[in-house]
Amino acid sequence: MSASLLVPSSVVAVPLPVPAAPAAEPPRTPPPAAAWIARGTPAYARVSWGFFFVGFATFALVYCVQPVMPEFAASFGASPAGSSLALSLTTGFLAFSILISGAVSQAIGRRGLILGSMALGAGLNVAAGLSPSWHGLLAARALEGLALGGVPAVAMTYLAEEIEPKSLGRAMGLYIAGSAFGGLMGRVGMGLLNELVSWRGAMVVLGALCLICAALAWRLLPASRNFTAQKGLRFSHNLRAWRSLLRDPALTPLFAIGFVLTGVYVTIYNYAGFRLAEAPFDLGGGVISLIFLCVVFGIVSSMVSGALMERFGKRASLLGGFALILAGVALTAPPSLAAIVAGIACVTAGYFIAHPVASSMIGPIAGPAKAHAASLYLLFYYVGSSVVGSVGGWFWEHGGWGAVALGAGALSAAGLGAALVATAPAAQGRA
């Protein structure tokens, strides 16, 4: 899934107001034009495609378990809510790792952390597929989330530091597209491979494929030109920065939006498979996995979200994304396969419109504190996936899909309220 995390060119172009506390990072003078990686150069193409593979591998690994959750329930006797832990533990530990990884990258560098995280995450996915026990699988998936946190925590910062401002949006767009494509192939590929070689073989194959992606990224991504390592991890400094950002009234509604967006999105996909496996649909695992082709709408939406923001503005784009999500949740309620597919497509498109808008507003508001603000946004984003994704299982077990849709709709309405606050004129002045 996911993953994705757009930052507009303005993130690094002009100094903007920051929270009234010590900056999360020491202010840095923008590098001379010659230091930027400019669009149209071989280096720009290498970075853009390198981050396509980074996004693909990361989000394929995170979300590959969604289509085989019913298989986990059958293999290990887990409940639907229990089987969702294979994803919730990954995203929960990933959320924690994001905070730590952002600080670690200041000391050891962005590129090395990204590549190491990819390789370790892929290896742990292989270990999860080979685990003979449910608890062993969950442990491997938790460690996988801890490892993969190094990618989203650092990817957007690396790009913002290295790519010239006017070309940053396109590079971010390819990273987001790779993330969406990875989420798509991880889900659909797992479902189809499960029909051929079992879910265990599918997880091993996917892990090996993502190791290849890590090798490709290693060949493509250049060393940082505009990054200077800092000695020590400075945890006290980071804690002060995060505390300051959490008190910023312009940022807190954006953090809430991140929580809501991924919570609703993951919940709908988590339990759609359980619903379609039951009467009146009675679909098999391979067919159910094709539902995840709706992520194609996310790939398209993420690639046009920048153009929507430019034409209609951030407020209209963000509110429009939430309107699509609410309409999509409502469409999934009737027992009609066509309506369910249309509803999931609407939720996906709305999510991939709203998420880039919300994440693009973080950097300009935070200014020099953008790396810490981004890590907090991602913390809320993945905690939403972990918490709401598992709580949705309780709704499913006690009230069926009607309860899941009602809960997702209520949470989406809350997110719409947060979007209205985040895009109010006073907040827009800083974004």
UniProtKB/TrEMBL annotation:
SUPFAM superfamilies: MFS general substrate transporter. It is a multi-pass membrane protein. Residues 1-20 form the signal peptide. It comes from the Bacteria. GO terms for molecular function: transmembrane transporter activity. Its main location: membrane. It is found in: Cell membrane. Pfam families: MFS_1. InterPro entries: MFS, MFS_dom, MFS_trans_sf. The chain crosses the membrane at residues 47-65, 85-108, 138-160, 172-193, 199-221, 250-271, 283-304, 316-333, 339-362, 374-396, 402-427. Residues 43-427 form the Major facilitator superfamily (MFS) profile domain. Keywords: Cell membrane, Membrane, Signal, Transmembrane, Transmembrane helix, Transport. One of its GO terms (cellular component) is plasma membrane. Belongs to the major facilitator superfamily. This is MFS transporter. It comes from Methylopila jiangsuensis.
